[in-house]
Every structure is written in C-alpha cells, then in structure tokens.
Amino acid sequence: MAVTSYVGKNGATLWKVSVSVRSSNDPSIRVQKAMFGFQAEHEAKKEESKLLRVCERSVLVKESQGSSWRAVLESWEKNLDEKLSATTRKDYVAVAYKYTASWLPRPASSITSLDVKELLFQLKASGRTYGYIKLIKNLLGRIFTYGIERRLIRDMDRPPTFGIQLGKPEEKRPEILTLAEIRKLLQSARDMQHPWYHHWALALLTGMRSGELYALLWTDIDWENSCLTVSKSYNNRFDEIKSTKAGYWRTVPISTELRALLAEIKLLAGDRSSVLPRHALWKKGMQARELRKFCIGLGLPSVRFHALRACFATQLIRNGVPPIQIQKICGWKDLKTMQRYIRMAGIEVTGATEALKVLPEPEIMAKVVDLFSGDPVR
Fold first, then answer.
1. Distance of alpha carbon 200 from its chain centroid, rounded?
2. pLDDT at 24
3. What is the pTM of this model?
4. Quick one: which of 166, 118, 113 has its CA closest to 141?
5. Beta bridge partners of residue 25, listed in sequence order
6. Per residue in 144-182, pLDDT tens?
7. Architecture field, domain 69-149
C-alpha cells in the first residue's frame, strides 16, 4: 500500500493511492488496484482503506476458485517425474504452455471440456496427426489430475478431458520405397557423386537411425567377425552423444554389399574417427529435407530419412528373414512396430488366394461365351 504525490498536467501537486494484496495461501493470487487525481493527501488515505477492502475481497474470491492455470502448470513443472528424460520433460512443458497460453490467467477450475474440445479441434484443423492430438489430450488430463490431487483446482472431481472421444485414427501407410526405387535412388546418387550417397546407402544396408549413423565410429566395426555394434546415438537438440533410443546396444551383421560399401568409405575417410562425414546440415537435423529434395528431383516418392530404416526392414521381410531377427537387428523392443512392415510387404497374404478353385475346367470354359468379346468361343 502506498500514497504518493505526483505533478499533474497543470503543474499542481496531486496524490495517488495504490494497493496490492497477495494471497498467503496461494502466492500466485495477487490483486492490485490504483486511483489517481486526489487533490489532498488525506483524501487519498481515506480512499486507501476502501481500496484495501476491495482487494482483500477479490483475493478471497480468487482463493475460493482455486489456483490459476498458470500456477497449476508451474507446480506441475516443478514436480515432473524425474524418470522422464530431459528431452521429454522439456517437450511436455513446452507444448503445455504453448497450447494453453490463453488459459494461463484463468482459474483452473473454470476450464471446461468445451475449452479442451476447442483446443483439440484447432490441433486437428492445423493438420496435426491423431497420435499427436491424443498425446496432448492425455498430457492435459495428467496435469488436471495433478492439480485436483494437490488441491490446487477446486470444485473439480475429474479432469475436463474425461469422456472426450477422438474417434478412430486413420492409419497412414508408412513412407517407403520399392526395391526398384531404392536402386534408382542409390544409382543416381552415386552417378552424381552426391555428398549424401554413403549416408543413404549405409542406412539402407543397416536399418540404423540417423542419430545412430552420426555416432557410428570405425571402432564400432568388427571386420573379422563381419558385424558392427550400434551402442550410441547423436541428439542434435542437445548436441550430445547418448545411448540408443531403446537404451541398449545391438549388433548388425555386415553383408557382402555392406562390407564393400564400408571399405569404400574407409578409403575416403582418412584419419576421420566417424564412419560417415558429419555434414553441417546433418548436425542441424536437416537430413530429411535433403533426401526429400533429391527424391523429388528424381521423380521418386518424397520420403524422409527415417523411411530408409523402413525400407531395410521391409526388404528383409520380403526376402524371408524371420521377423524376430529383424527386430533384434533394428533394435525394436517388441513386434508391434514390425507388424506394419509385415503387412506392407504382403508376406502374410502372399499365395493365399491360390487355394480358390472356382472357375470351370478349361474344356468347359471353351464352350462358354467369351465375356470380353461377347462372341461364342468355337
């Protein structure tokens, strides 16, 4: 609280009163009010006590409504599960603040399912995938649950995300290249001496992720036993080498083609410790853009870098390699991801229709009207 003087426009001395009251129960709740233009100090002091009572009543009203959404977010952020990786925690906090910015000053208890539905509709309209929208919905549900359990949100028994249905997801066919398209991509890149040729070829022959290829060193290559070890990955967001996505190392067998490719790269590597040259664009995470651009130029489907891993898996499936082996080579924890590529390869249904025998025998067919010409067959 304060009563101070100031000089008005006409040079006369005037007085102003300003009052600020903060809740002792919730520091995020604060009410401020000010009045100007008093010609005498005693008038300002008289108004000060009235203004104080108004602010105190406003604080009580806000306390009864519970914490603001900003206060809930700040508390939730401080108590995020430490088991989550630093990247995941950072991403969760960023999207929570980004998509609920308009909610920040509101009492959390005033946010309804209609607000949540509107947010999710906006995400869908902007082209966000079903999986991403589901992630945001679940994240908001966890934040609301946190606020309710910590008694930061009053008069709310369950989160406003409860009961909101997203409908059935539309499964998109994974980006992939056929064998002919793969060969065209690599042949063209080699003929043009494209700086990314070895990167694409190595990805297609190992199924390694971009970050794993970036971190691959010559010390990871076991020439004698014809295998290479995948034990680390590069994270361009934090500019650091970390463990693989699955968190454990794996072995990739070196095929005849892969051995020849590695030998070729080795001749060009000189004293470089990394297997592949680490282009500046790669470090910036722009490897997908470079591949898409090259594919479009060749008239091939525009695929991202990670699609080369899918190409690797699908070609092995089509060549009869057992899924359990592919799972180990690629580092997938379960076969769930594999099922998409198995369906894409069509291995589960190949030859299944051969069991159908419904058409007449050839000698009977000879007497049937030719359905294509409309003329009887003699």
1. 23
2. 79
3. 0.63
4. 113
5. none
6. 999 999 888 888 899 999 999 988 776 666 678 999 999
7. Orthogonal Bundle (1.10)
